[in-house]
Amino acid sequence: MKEHALFLSLGFNFNDERLIKEAQQFIDLFERIEEKLSRFSANSDPEVVAEFNMEVYQAAVSIWAYKRKVLGLSLRCEIRSNNYPLLLDHTSREAAYFANRLKDLNDGKLQPLPEAIIKENVFFLRIMADHSKFIGHLLDPSERKLVEQAREFGHDFDQLVFQALDMDSMRPQSETVPLLDQFLDQNRVSVVSLREFKKTARDLIEECKIKSIIHPLLADHVFREADRFLHIIDMFDESLSANK
Q1: pLDDT tens per residue across span 41-88
Q2: What pTM was computed for the model?
Q3: How far is CA 147 from CA 159, 202, 223, 234, in A?
Q4: Residue pair 96/64 in contact by the 8 Å Cβ criterion
Q5: Are 194 and 150 in contact (CB under 8 A)?
Q6: At 139, phi and psi to the nearest 5?
Q7: Dihedral angle over CA of 70, 75, 80, 83, nearest 10
Q8: Per-residue exposure over 26-56, b if at least 16 CB sit within 10 Å of its own CB, e if not
Q9: 221-243 pLDDT, tens per residue?
Q10: What do you get for the CA distance between the two ends of the chain, in Å?
Q11: Confidence of residue 244 (pLDDT cuts 50, 70, 90)
C-alpha cells in the first residue's frame, strides 16, 4: 500500500498538489504501521494483534477510497496525470483485497473453500494480466522484443482469467478436487514463467540495460506480487491435499 501511494504520487502532474500531499500522508501512515508491525512477535497477545489488524484494515479502506476518488477524477477528465485509469482501478482492487483479508483473519476465516480458491485465483490472474499490460506500455517502444513478450503474457493471462471464471460458474465441490488440482497446476506454470520475465526485467532495469519509464521499485513490486501468488497457490495445494 505504501508503494502504491508512492507510484501514484510520481504519476501526478506538478499542479496536483493536494493529491500529491494526500499520497504522502498515506506513505507516512503505512510507514508508521510497518514500524509498529516490526515490534510484534509470534508470542504477541492475540487481542493486541486483532486490534492492530483492525487499525490496518481502516488504513486499507482509507487508501481504497482515495484511489477510487482519483480514478473518478481521471475518468471525468478533471485531472490529467500519467496514472492510467486501469492502474488506479488495479491498485484499488488490491486495497480492497487486503482489507477483506484482514477482516477474514479477525473473523477466524482461515480455511480456504473450493469456491474461495477459484475466486482468489481469478483475482490474482487478473492482477498478473494487468501487470503484463502495464509493463508493455511502460517499456520504451524501441524495446520491441520485450514489449511483444509483455503483450503475449497479457493475452495469456486474460485467457486464464476467462477460464477461471468458467470454472467459478461451474463451482466444483470437494468431490471434484482433481479439477482444482489441475487448475492450480496450470496457473502455477504460467505464473512461474511471468515471474521469471519480471525478474529479468527488474534486473535489467536496475542495471540500466533496457530503456523504459519503469521505476526500479515498481519493477520489484510486480515481481514480488507474482512471487506472492505462487506462495498462495502452494498454500491452496496443501489445503486440497489435506482434504483428500
Answers
A1: 888 898 999 999 999 999 999 999 999 999 999 999 999 999 999 999
A2: 0.93
A3: 19, 14, 17, 30
A4: yes
A5: no
A6: -70, 150
A7: 60
A8: bbebbeebeeeeeeeeeeeeeeeeeebeeeb
A9: 999 999 999 999 999 988 888 76
A10: 37
A11: low
Q: Which three cell numbers stand for residue 131?
A: 501487470
Cell of 151: 503483450
Q: What are the cell numbers at 90?
A: 488495479
